[in-house]
Design goal:
This protein has 92 residues and is mainly alpha-helical. 67% of the residues lie in helices and 9% in strands.
């Protein structure tokens, strides 16, 4: 349960990163983008989707393969978390 809370925290972190503003150049002039949709489209990346898959994927697969739960808890959960190790070492 503690690992699930950690996963939710990192998913929320990536979700909040979608709303970080950026400056755009219009006619040679720098200005901050104020519209929401261009900001989200600028900030969305494959990392956002990988975070959702690595966070919620093991739980979805555990429900799908409910008859063999021990295999899902050990092997697949570990495979999903390989991406997470790189995320922990990431510097922004």
């Amino acid at each position: 349960m503690l690992l699930f809370a950690f996963d939710i925290f990192l998913i929320i972190d990536k979700f909040v990163d979608l709303f970080l503003g950026y400056t755009s150049e219009l006619n040679g002039e720098q200005r901050e983008e104020k519209r929401l949709m261009p900001v989200i489209l600028h900030n969305i990346s494959p990392d956002f989707f990988l975070e959702i898959i690595s966070g919620l994927g093991p739980f979805v697969l555990n429900i799908y393969f409910s008859e063999n739960r021990q295999f899902m808890k050990n092997t697949t959960y570990g495979l999903f978390k390989i991406y997470r190790y790189g995320r922990l070492l990431e510097t922004d």
